[in-house]
Amino acid sequence: MSELIQAILDSEEKSDLRSFASELRQQEQKYLLRNEILNVFSEYCAKSQKPENFYASSQLGKLIYYTQEIIQEDSNLCFIIRPKIASQEVYRLTADLTFEPMTVQELLDLRDRLVNKFHPNEGDLLELDFGPFYDYTPVIRDPKNIGKGVQFLNRYLSSKIFQDSKQLLDSLLNFLRLHQYNGIQLLLNDRIKTQQQLSEQVKKAIAFVSGRPSDEPCDEFRFQLQAMGFEPGWGNTAQRVQETLNVLDELIDSPDPQTLEAFISRVPMIFRIVLVSAHGWFGQEGVLGRPDTGGQVVYVLDQAKNLEKQLQEDAQLAGLEKLNVQPKVIILTRLIPNSDGTLCNQRLEKVHGTENAWILRVPLRDFNPNMTQNWISRFEFWPYLETFALDSERELIAEFHGRPDLIVGNYTDGNLVAFLLARRMKVTQCNIAHALEKSKYLFSNLYWQDLEEKYHFSLQFTADLIAMNAANFIISSTYQEIVGTPDSVGQYESYKCFTMPELYHVTNGIELFSPKFNVVPPGVNENSYFPYTRTQDRVESDRDRISEMLFTLEDSSQIFGKLDDPNKRPIFSMARLDRIKNLTGLAECFGQSKELQEHCNLILVAGKLRVEESGDNEERDEIVKLYHIIDEYNLHGKIRWLGVRLSKTDSGEIYRVIADHKGIFVQPALFEAFGLTILEAMISGLPTFATQFGGPLEIIQDKVNGFYINPTHLEETATKILEFVSKCEQNPNYWDTISQKAIDRVYSTYTWKIHTNKLLSLARIYGFWNFTSKENREDLLRYIEALFYLIYKPRAQQLLEQHKYR
Ligand code: UDP
Ligand code: LCN
């Protein structure tokens, strides 16, 4: 960047820079974000009659393109520049046009001064820096490989085997001797003690099994293998055993990443998994659409079912059936005594359609019953997590008759509990964010003190730092969840460097280039959500009932609005009623476009219809706002608002019925971390218009299998939808083409089979990596513990005090 800046200063663009800087100084706002910077720049270009391509062709335009933020202090301007993904440079532009680099500390101090929270005495403020702990782990170099941690590790480990085969093969041998199931030894026994023996015996065993019929069950020759040093776990048939041994043989002789991955993915080492989803209503019926209960619950339930299936398949292929191996998956959540008709007050609930997957609900310790007996917002949940983890540990050990093999956390609270459990039980920890609130709320860290009463971000962001650094690996649904796009910062990236004025400065909050990050997107439940054209799998009476509910049924207790013309093309959306989901924005976009109203009806499935029924601030505000918009634009006769909570089958059928009517799905969120409704709509065959802010950018390929919208530009969004509608009116095949492409996209890229395979292979390779690298994480974990006890816990205690009087 410094060359680019120098080039500007040395050229005639210097005077443009001067005038633009003066333009910036005249802005009322002292803190400008990217969008605002671009606006000021285009105003400047218009005013000074710059050629149309000035932004693209000039050096200054380039600088502006890379600038994420500009902060003004006195006559200085601080440019926060992101020259490439996951990197940041900061410069001060002074009044006499000198550019000086600034340190991270100077930037954080400047931000503090901006909100009048600066403490000039050095050493007044705690500085958090996780950088040194990553010094001893290998890091990815090229930002485009971020999120492909496992490929990187495989490459790294196999090259290590190649260079230093003695040490790594020793580790591999010890690793293979480690595995047991319920006290039964797997893979290797004491007859194989050295690397040399391993290599010889593998060849012997290959020769032995290759002489047997390929489909002979492994039990028939179990004792011969045992005598050679091999225990169960190599395969269910002679052929499978031979294949596995061949892969090992190849790994010993000529290691490469694919062979390593192929071998480790076959090692039977995971049988018991915990998925922690602590807050919210976690159940199988009647919970969705409530505040805090949305995609995460859908995701975890589907993941549990599919993990069980995959573990069973793997155990069967490994030849462990006769050992009575029964993989078990437990979803750990809180028990809510006042459960409002749901099963959230039940300790144990079997997951439908599984043999051994369970929801285990552990109550919060008794405190003010107004809090602990009821649902608690995720923003208020922090004081209860430590004791919840302690109590859960006992219950998990009882349920599993031992320790689990893998603990997966979900969302900040679940990830913190996963950290506490994994630390105590010495188990591999995996994190899943679903959404990191930090990027959802603008300036949430800078103004944390003002927001504290409502959101308690000081606890949430501290918990995030703890859990993401402690995790052995992290899976994200998209690449941009980690490091954003060329012009926007990623969710994890936003934890790299930030200030929490008067609490701490984070100078290096997370290593984005660490192989711990892996992109593993979720799938969609293919039993509930499938293409509308699969009529043989649809139930006619359901279709008629849902159709009536969507378009004509009059029932003011749960449906608002009567359509003047139910035959118009439906624009459909379904989401929880919170601010970020922005259903009100969609209603407003529809309200402002008379033309859209001429062609279409708007149908929303959104939580509740009445303010009195909601206990959530944001939900109440959104309900009021939606009524207001309907009146303001007089949308009566053109909109239906369904305040219903649908069963899984009904929610699948609803998309299909909309597709029967050649409708479209719109997801208008101001920001969406991933967006399961988008997958659901697309697999059903609905042309989908989704926000360009967040995950949908990776799910949809614009104009190929769906469309991006900018939900802050209402007119532009309406025009995009109208363009599509009129294209379909001229050529009805157009709707079918996009519909089919949407279906294909989901089946090719977003299935639970792909997800679970990848997740399990990650868990295995990270298990092996932890074992072989003997990476000493103890110093990192001690640092993290100090944060937990010295920052998190006292603040949680304070919040608990406040809860006394709720
Ligand atoms: N959902 C539902 N009823 C509602 C609202 C949402 O069944 O009233 C379901 C929806 O089908 C999807 C999930 O809740 O499976 C929402 O997931 P998404 O990832 O779109 O958003 P989140 O709520 O997690 O932010
Ligand atoms: C939470 C969200 O906000 C959504 O974007 C995701 O799709 C969901 O969790 C599942 O990961």
Automatic annotation (TrEMBL):
Domain Sucrose synthase EPBD: 148-236
Sucrose synthase N-terminal domain: residues covered: 3-111
PANTHER family: PTHR45839, SUCROSE SYNTHASE 1 (PTHR45839:SF7)
Catalytic activity: an NDP-alpha-D-glucose + D-fructose = a ribonucleoside 5'-diphosphate + sucrose + H(+)
Endpoints of the signal sequence: none
Transferase as UniProt keyword: yes
Keyword annotations of the record: Glycosyltransferase, Transferase
Broad EC category: transferase
Domain Sucrose synthase first GT-B: 259-551
Enzyme Commission number(s) of this protein: 2.4.1.13
Protein name, per record: Sucrose synthase
Any one GO molecular-function label of the UniProt entry: sucrose synthase activity
Entries under Pfam families matching the protein: Glycos_transf_1 (PF00534), GT-B_Sucrose_synth (PF00862), SUS_EPBD (PF24862), SUS_N (PF24861)
Superkingdom as given in the UniProt entry: Bacteria
NCBIfam families per UniProt: sucr_synth
Record GO biological process: sucrose metabolic process
Family, per entry: Belongs to the glycosyltransferase 1 family.
Domain Glycosyl transferase family: 565-728
